[in-house]
Amino acid sequence: MRPIVSLGTAGALAAAFVVATSAPTNARAGCSNATLNGAYSVRATGDVIGIGPFAAVGVFAFDGNGHVAASLVTRTNGANGLSNVAGTYSVAPDCTAADTLSTATGVVSTHSYAIFDRGRGFYILNTTVGAPNVVIGEARKQAGANDE
């Protein structure tokens, strides 16, 4: 009989792997809220339990001082949507981070991050307590006029 690993367990293991493999490299450089600054293109996929597959693309805009806003185009079980959120974030010296985001209608979500490449990107995991979903994504900093 083969062991069965639940989607939630698999997601937790994947997140632990991401944090374990990303944080030590970045810890030497140190991170702060200023590490996340500017616009990041993000994509995320997963499942909303009992509903179906989920995917999103969009842009997160960080101010470097703990405030973030995002606009996402989503697709959940074949239905398209648009989500605009804003909130706060906090970056730890080991280059992990967390946020709390709210929609205009008051829906709140939380996420954990593992920042890599000196803030040029991050992995993101939805950690909203009680949310019936398993969603993980990746973001890359958008190039600006003064970037390499």
At CATH level 2, the architecture is Beta Barrel
Tally of individual helices = 1
The percent of residues in helical segments reads 10-25%
Low-confidence stretches: 1-27
**Biggest β-sheet: strands ordered side by side in the sheet:** 1-2-3-4-5-6-7-8
State the secondary-structure class.
mainly beta
**How many strands in all?**
8
Q: In CATH terms, what is the fold-level topology?
A: Lipocalin
| Arithmetic mean pLDDT | 85
Q: Estimate nothing, just give the exact number of structural domains.
A: 1
- Anisotropy-based shape: globular
CATH class: Mainly Beta
Could you tell me how far the N terminus lies from the C terminus, measured between alpha carbons in angstroms?
53 Å
List the helices and strands and how they pair.
Elements: H1 7-27, E1 37-48, E2 52-63, E3 67-76, E4 79-91, E5 96-103, E6 108-116, E7 121-126, E8 133-141
Antiparallel strand pairs: 1-2, 1-8, 2-3, 3-4, 4-5, 5-6, 6-7, 7-8
Characterization of the model:
It is a single chain. The protein has one domain (7-141): Lipocalin (Beta Barrel), CATH 2.40.128. It has one helix spanning 7-27, and strands at residues 37-48, 52-63, 67-76, 79-91, 96-103, 108-116, 121-126, 133-141. The termini are far apart. Strand 4 and strand 5 (96-103) form a beta hairpin. The protein is globular. The chain contains one helix and eight strands; from the N terminus they run H-E-E-E-E-E-E-E-E. Strands 1-2-3-4-5-6-7-8 form an eight-stranded antiparallel β-barrel. It is mostly beta strands and 148 residues long. Residues 1-27 have low confidence and may be disordered.
